[in-house]
Amino acid sequence: MAGKKTLSFGREEASPLCEDKALSSGGYGCPEAVQSKNSVARVDAEGMDYRELNALLRSLNGNGVQRVEITHVYGQRYIGTDLDGSFDIDVYGTPGNDLGAFMKGPTVTVHGNAQDGCGNTMDEGKIVIHGYAGDIVGYSMRGGKIFIRDDAGYRVGIHMKEYYEKRPVIVVGGTAQDFLGEYMAGGVVAVLGLTLEDGGTHNARFVGTGMHGGKMYLRGNVRHLAKDVAVMDLEASDRTLLRCLIDEYDHYFDVDLHELTVDEFIKLIPESHRPYGKLYSK
Amino acid sequence: MKSYLEPNYIVERDDERCIRCKVCVNQCTYETHYYDPEDDAVYSHDENCVNCHRCVVFCPTQALTIRPNPCTYTANANWTHEAIRALKEQAETGGVMITGMGCDKPHYTYWDRLLLNASQVTNPSIDPLREPMELRTYLGAKPDRLAVDVVDGEVALTTQLTPQVCLETPILFSAISYGATSFNVHEALARAATESGTLFNTGEGGLDHRLYPYGDHTIVQVASGRFGVHPAYLDVGAAIEIKIGQGAKPGIGGHLPGEKVGPAISKTRMIPVGTDAFSPAPQHDIYSIEDLRQLIYALKEATDYTKPVSVKIAAVHNSAAIASGMVRAGADIIALDGVRGGTGAAPKTNRDNVGIPIELALASVDQRLRDEGIRNRASVIAAGGIKSSADVAKAIALGADAVYIGTAALVAMGCTVCQKCYTGKCPWGIAATDPWIAKRLNPDIATRRLVNLLQAWSWELKEIMGGMGINAIESLRGNRLHLRGVRLTDTELRVLGVKLAGE
User: Fold this and answer.
1) Tens digit of pLDDT for each residue in B185-215?
2) How distant is the Cα of A126 from the closest Cα of chain B, in angstroms?
3) Is residue A8 part of a domain?
């Protein structure tokens, strides 16, 4: 893959990701201490409507509880929405659509698969999924991180953005489907290709359609790149960032990927941050 | 390539009146006027003139007149001057024709074929100068029925009411984004809405923090681009609006070019300076009514069910069926934007040919919701080409709870509807973000002009209602017996649900 001209878009200083406190201060092995047992709440969501469940979460959040374990989650939507600050939610089961929509702060760990719209317009916080995720992961996400152990659906990272210290990150352990990174305007998407066979190919088509900011890292062959993206060589800052993300993935999912070299990745960036600049007659 | 395009307008300067003060030179952002020191004269590049009248208004000696170029192509009902000019422009650029404001074609206005009723003999009219006249309007879902408990003669409401927003007059400022317009425009809209007891709508570019104090009079919009949408933004508004479409360009997205994204707009939209802001055509989490419900309830969850959620759609062929779905999806307010709705930029072909007139859409939506027994579950706001208080009264009689005004509000501030908003050079400082141009709009004066407009229209509404013998706007809402049509076909009358004048 030939290195193309370096485009400047957004801000190009050293990635703030590795200055992220969770990564730098705690080291990769222990990003955050477990909260004291006194503040852990356990919720059995069996038979609970999402309104009831989320109202309960808001009430616990408001009463100073810092960690909640929810069991028997069967498709309740919007878990993580409208909660304040540092709040850890462990979800056992399958949360419904829009997990963490408009979320600002909490950490949601899903012990199972997630459905569509995970991290929709998320502002801050973290979602860690021990399984698969559905379509439009991180739609218009502006900050925070989403880690998916296995595969994800269509339009992952669509229209995600970045703004100063807010630089969203999505890491998909396996592969993702068509329109990966569509309309992407900022942030980072990394697809590790762990569910592909060696030398395998991501099935996704139209990767990076309309992309005009941010970057994607992919391991594995790409079946169909959109015309809007350029394949670039990794720079030193990319290698550092990718290593951080892989190590963080290792940490969440208790795997050892230290043999995975960052050289196996390609980097995709937009050809232009003005893809439709010449569409008009004047 | 030599351009075959001729100037649209001719600048006429009365040399006897011109005092060479160069106000026109400085005021024109399109560089139409220039001063030649050797001749001590001011001349014009007519081809640059957009007929915005900024120079005409500010010329201290009334030396300027702008005339349409009389040199038109050979008269032809098919190959009109406008059509020939458009063809030449596209042949020279290969690009999409872009324009601003709403559809300028004459064949869509039904307001002018609807006439209002008044009381004569059999019921008394009311003098609004003498008697109370109620324009207050509440937007939001109303319950199907009210349940009360009566204990010891005390009546207590047991039905839990859904959130409502209160308007002192049934006129709101339509969505106009920060980015398409300047901060001063947003500030004036926010202050005027607050002073007048109504709401302004942020549009899809977020809300500058300096305007958060006006949150109780703000509708915060959530569109496909999700620019500047974060929990504090959702929390600060009195209502939230999901923008599906707009009347000026139904079905297509938007695009704020990077050169308009300066530091302040960057901060509000939360995107880097100088990057294009794309609003994709669809919201990618909404491909169905069920998905719309998902976003409506995501927003309700995000704000703990404390405020109504509006959904705005462009008026299109099957609006009535869509509106039914929207109500069932949980929308508390439905905003319908007709084909004459304005915009900062739209492809001309879409603007002038896509969508349907608001009058027909409004009538069919109101009727459909009534037929299905769900009209109470959502308020309806009509938008798109409301240009007078009479249009407001007719819209309410056709079934609207309130109306949005966008273009009318901009005209109140100084806009002359020259349709060049997309250039970013608006000489009136409205559709401009360049600080040098944007500062022309004084927010104090603009606020006053907007408040005056709403005050005038509110008085006129009261006069119209008084003439009908109605003392509350509620009695006019959906009251189509107060409308009669002229120059309308039977089918048009049927869709509008009104009788022909004389019937």
Assistant:
1) 999 999 999 999 999 999 999 999 999 999 9
2) 16
3) no
